[in-house]
Amino acid sequence: MQSSKFLSGVFCLILFAVLIIPETGYAIPAFARKYKLSCNTCHSAFPRLKAFGDEFAASGFILQGKESKRNYVTAGDDLLWLNKDFPLAVRMDLFAIQEQGKNVENDLQSPWGIKLLSGGALYKNIGYYFYFYMSERGEVAGIEDAYIHFDNIFSSNLDVMVGQFQICDPLMKRELRLTYEDYMIYKTNIGLSNINLAYDRGVMLAYSVEKTGTDLVAMLVNGNGKPQAVNHKLDQDNYKNVGLRLNQGIGELFTVGGFYYKGKEKSPDSRRINEVAYFGPDLTFGTGQVELTAQYLYRTDTNPMFLPTAGDVETKGYVVEALFAPDIDKSRYYFTALYNLIDSDIYEYETATLSYTYQIARNLRFLTEYSRDLTHEHNRLVCGIVGAF
Question: How far apart are CA 45 and CA 358, in angstroms?
């Protein structure tokens, strides 16, 4: 009874907010402020990117043809591009959660997270991007994305990113999803292993073959995520991990891809080694109104528990997401269906999610979401507001 009253109250409050907030409410984040463009130029429902937004990000957050000396302090030096107005934006996520099977089933996660973001040009074809999590789950989480992007090196189609990024970005960008539920196979650690496909430090190279519609990505990373430095070292061992990604466009509607990742790690006492490999295909299909993305990954670990006697562990992961936008990039509302499955020798996770997103303004959206934990037969309901300014 208490849960029902809580949920009824939450839904009434959110519905009241949606009805009374005027549609003209508008606040422009960093890039839109700089170029005097609507957020809809790059985003459909933020943070999800349109094709133009993808191109803008791939250009190092530089809008080719729109850069002007009046945007920068050059001090008469052709080698200086100093932003006249430092680009800065904030994102805030606020949620109300009702989740079965938890010690606290009803939770007002308000705010769940507050990000401070910045990005832009450093020089011709060189951009930067970073964000600082001022608060995530009630704690200061620190820097997540933070890199310098070199676009079209030597006037070729080669891009290089140096810094901290998500290994899964060339596959499915976790930070751009509309759902509260995550793409779980990318962020899940197996056993005591520190290796996953979320944040890591390293170098990423991307090359496009325009004639064939082929994209190639290679990366070299520390392989242990983003822990704090120990003895002034950010890597915890001498190993470096590598990832390779191939993506091929097929006509105007389909793309198919393949991913491979290989690495090693030492146990905290440096006495044992775990060897990790990921590989698997992915598929995307898009008509404008409907977008479908499917990812399969197979992971192997030789000793993820760092036991005296090594034992191989196999993990299979699936992510399938379908998005429906009735008016394509002009839609005010979106429907998302998301399926997660992790089937491992030592861990299981399976959820099915349905989510509804409504754009109150270009930079303010409401979401309500239902997830079913198919492993434990529990339900989760989410209501939330996400804003950027």
Answer: 8
Q: Which helix (H) or strand (E) holds 217?
A: strand 214-221
Other beta carbons within 10 Å of 146? 18
* Gap between the Cα atoms of 233 and 223, Å rounded: 13
> One-letter amino acid identity for 378?
H
Burial class (CB in 10 A: 0-12, 13-18, 19+), 109: middle
Is 1 exposed, middle or buried (CB count within 10 Å of its CB: 0-12, 13-18, 19+)?
exposed
Residue 178 CB: number of other CB atoms within 10 A?
Answer: 22
- In this structure, what DSSP letter does residue 65 have? T
Measured distance CA(129)–CA(102) in Å, rounded:
37
Measured between alpha carbons, how far is residue 254 from residues 214, 274, 286, 341 in Å?
Answer: 12, 37, 7, 23
Q: Looking at the 3D structure of the chain, how many domains does it have?
A: 1
Tell me the two tokens of residue 90. Answer: 């904030």
Q: Give the integer Cα–Cα distance in Å for 134 and 111.
A: 11
pTM of this structure: 0.84
Query: What range does the domain containing 245 cover?
Result: 2-388
Please, what sign has the CA dihedral across residues 315, 258, 289, 91? positive
pLDDT (tens digit, 9 = 90+) per residue, 26-52?
333 556 656 655 556 665 666 666 565
pLDDT tens string 364-381 = 999 999 999 999 999 999
From the list 132, 134, 118, 43, the residue with the least C-alpha distance to 83 is 118
Summarised one tens digit per residue, pLDDT across range 342-366 is 999 999 999 999 999 999 988 899 9
Q: What is the CATH number of the domain that holds 183?
A: 2.40.160.10
Rounded Cα distance between 180 and 107, Å, is 14
Q: Are 373 and 350 in contact (CB under 8 A)?
A: yes
Which residues are registered as beta bridge partners of 98?
106, 381
The DSSP call for residue 268 is T
Gap between the Cα atoms of 164 and 169, Å rounded: 11
- In degrees and rounded to multiples of 5, residue 312 shows phi and psi of -65, 140
